[in-house]
Design goal:
158 residues, rod-shaped
């Protein structure tokens, strides 16, 4: 389970750094409204990108965030300092989000399965130990070596 958690954190680290580089300058305001990105979901810095990717990995409006990164560049985007735009994001953004969502879901499913398998294994060990203890007690009872406390036939009649 520990290795999968480390893999999950590494995945988030790589995608957060890439997200800051690709989408860090996207602006959401009255002129350029956003559907999914907000002050709580943005790629402005590494920390917020990490939290945004956590939101995306849970499936909470990840398509809205991706849609915000797919905005077309206005014809005069080179002169508008309020709107940073990269025309190649039209192709990069879907690959970024779909690959992240699929990979994160795959890793999350493996973490859940690993935890369930560990608990199942622990439960099986406990059941096996209890069965061995029960068999031992039955064997001792059958041989007559196990005395009940206070039973007169065992000499402990108190």
């Amino acid at each position: 389970v520990g290795n999968l958690g480390l893999l999950f954190m590494l995945l988030f680290f790589i995608y957060a750094a890439l997200g800051v580089e690709l989408f860090g300058e996207l602006v959401c305001n009255e002129d350029y409204p956003c559907e999914g990105m907000s002050r709580h979901a943005t790629f402005e810095n590494f920390g917020m990108a990490f939290l945004t990717l956590f939101q995306v990995s849970t499936g909470d409006n990840w398509n809205g965030i991706m849609k915000d990164t797919l905005r077309e560049c206005p014809p005069d985007h080179g002169t508008d300092v309020d709107y940073a735009c990269n025309p190649s994001l039209q192709f990069i953004s879907p690959m970024y989000f779909v690959s992240f969502v699929l990979t994160a879901q795959f890793v999350l499913i493996n973490v859940v399965v690993a935890v369930l398998m560990k608990h199942l294994d622990d439960s099986n060990k406990e059941a096996q130990e209890e069965a061995e203890m029960d068999a031992e007690i039955e064997l001792e009872l059958a041989q007559g070596t196990l005395c009940c406390m206070g039973a007169p036939s065992c000499g402990g009649g108190g």
